[in-house]
C-alpha cells in the first residue's frame, strides 16, 4: 500500500517537485521512514518529505540524507480520489530561530511563508528580536528540542468535511515530524486563514481563484472558530489595504504550541 500511494502522490505532484520521481523513490528506499501511509476506515493517508537545502543553504540537485529544512506533503485518499491535503515546510525549533540559511529559504518560498515565520516567532518567542538568526545571543541556551511546521496550504473537499479529517491530518503531521523525538519536546504549528482554495480533488476547477467577500469571509470566520476549538491562537496583522475591495489575504494567521513527552522505545521488548 505504501508504494502504491507514494508513487500515485509523486505522480500527482510531479510538476512541483524539485527532483525526479526516480530520485525520490531511491531516496525513500534509503530513508523508508521519510514516506509513510496509514489507513483509517476507507481513507488512506500518505505523508512524505524531501530536503530543500544543504547546511549552507544551497539548493540541491539530488536528495540528501541530512537537511535543515524539508517540504512535507500529506494527501488523503478515498480509493483513487484525493479528498484532502496538507503541505508545508518543517525544521527544528533551533534552526527555525538560529539558522540564517533556513530563514532565507523560508522567506524565498512565498510571502505567506515569510509571514508564517514572522507570526510564529513573534507569537511563540516574543522575547527575541526578529529574525532570531540576527539575534542569536538572545536565544536561550536551554531551548527545548522540537519541530516547527509552517503550513503552505491545506484543504478538505466539501463533501468529506465534518468527519475529523482535518484534525487527523494535523495529528499525522505532528507524529510524522516528531517520529525521532524523545523526552520533552516542543511542536509549533502556524497557518494562514486565507480563503480555502482547492488544489486537488473534486472541488478543484480550471478557473483561477477570484476573491468573493460574501462567500469567503464567512468561511474564514468558520475556520477561525474551528482552529480556536483545536487550541490555536488566532492573530490578526494590521491590514495595509483597508479599501472595500481588499481581499483580506496575509492578515489572519493561527498558531499552536504543543509541549509533549514522548517515551523512549524499549528495544529489549
Write a brief structural summary.
By secondary structure, the chain is of the alpha+beta class. The protein has helices spanning 2-12, 21-30, 93-98, 100-109, 111-124, 165-177, 213-229, and strands at 35-40, 43-51, 70-78, 81-92, 146-156, 183-192, 233-236, 252-262.
What does this structure look like?
With 269 residues, this protein is α+β, with helices and mostly antiparallel strands. It contains 7 helices and 8 strands; from the N terminus they run ααββββαααβαβαββ. α6 links the parallel β5 and β6 (183-192). α4 (100-109) crosses α5 (111-124). The two termini are 27 Å apart.
What labels would you give this structure?
alpha+beta; Aminopeptidase; eight-stranded mixed β-sheet
What is the fold's blueprint, element by element?
Elements: H1 2-12, H2 21-30, E1 35-40, E2 43-51, E3 70-78, E4 81-92, H3 93-98, H4 100-109, H5 111-124, E5 146-156, H6 165-177, E6 183-192, H7 213-229, E7 233-236, E8 252-262
Parallel strand pairs: 5-6
Antiparallel strand pairs: 1-2, 2-3, 3-4, 4-5, 6-8, 7-8
Helix pairs in contact: 4-5
Strand content: 25-35%
Q: Could you report the average pLDDT, rounded to the nearest whole number?
A: 91
The CATH C-level name is: Alpha Beta
In sequence order, what are the helices and strands, one letter per element? HHEEEEHHHEHEHEE
Q: Supply the number of structural domains.
A: 1
CATH architecture classification name: 3-Layer(aba) Sandwich
Shape label? globular
Distance between the termini: 27 Å
Main sheet makeup: 8 strands, mixed
Helix content: 25-40%
* Number of strand elements: 8
| Individual helix count | 7
Say what oligomer this is: single chain
Amino acid at each position: 500500500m505504501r508504494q502504491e500511494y507514494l508513487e500515485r502522490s509523486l505522480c500527482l505532484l510531479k510538476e512541483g517537485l524539485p527532483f525526479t520521481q526516480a530520485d525520490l523513490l531511491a531516496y525513500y528506499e534509503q530513508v523508508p521512514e521519510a514516506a509513510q501511509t496509514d489507513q483509517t476506515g476507507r481513507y488512506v493517508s500518505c505523508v512524505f518529505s524531501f530536503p530543500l537545502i544543504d547546511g549552507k543553504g544551497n539548493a540541491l540537485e539530488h536528495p540528501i540524507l541530512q537537511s535543515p529544512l524539508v517540504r512535507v506533503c500529506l494527501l488523503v485518499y478515498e480509493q483513487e480520489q484525493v479528498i484532502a491535503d496538507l503541505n508545508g515546510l518543517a525544521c527544528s525549533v533551533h534552526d527555525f530561530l538560529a539558522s540564517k540559511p533556513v530563514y532565507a529559504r523560508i522567506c524565498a518560498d512565498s510571502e505567506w511563508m515569510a509571514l508564517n515565520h514572522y507570526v510564529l516567532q513573534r507569537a511563540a518567542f516574543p522575547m527575541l528580536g526578529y529574525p532570531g538568526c540576527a539575534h542569536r545571543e538572545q536565544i536561550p541556551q536551554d531551548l527545548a528540542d522540537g519541530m516547527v511546521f509552517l503550513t503552505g496550504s491545506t484543504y478538505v473537499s466539501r463533501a468529506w468535511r465534518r468527519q475529523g479529517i482535518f484534525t487527523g491530518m494535523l495529528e499525522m503531521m505532528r507524529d510524522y515530524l516528531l517520529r525521532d523525538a524523545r523526552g520533552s519536546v516542543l511542536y509549533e504549528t502556524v497557518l494562514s486563514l486565507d480563503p480555502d482554495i482547492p488544489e486537488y480533488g473534486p472541488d478543484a476547477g480550471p478557473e483561477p481563484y477570484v476573491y468573493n467577500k460574501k462567500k469567503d469571509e464567512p468561511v474564514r470566520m468558520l475556520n477561525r472558530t474551528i482552529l480556536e476549538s483545536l487550541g490555536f491562537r488566532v492573530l490578526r496583522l494590521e491590514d495595509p489595504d483597508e479599501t472595500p475591495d481588499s481581499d483580506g489575504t496575509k492578515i489572519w494567521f493561527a498558531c499552536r504550541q504543543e509541549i509533549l513527552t514522548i517515551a523512549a522505545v524499549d528495544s529489549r521488548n
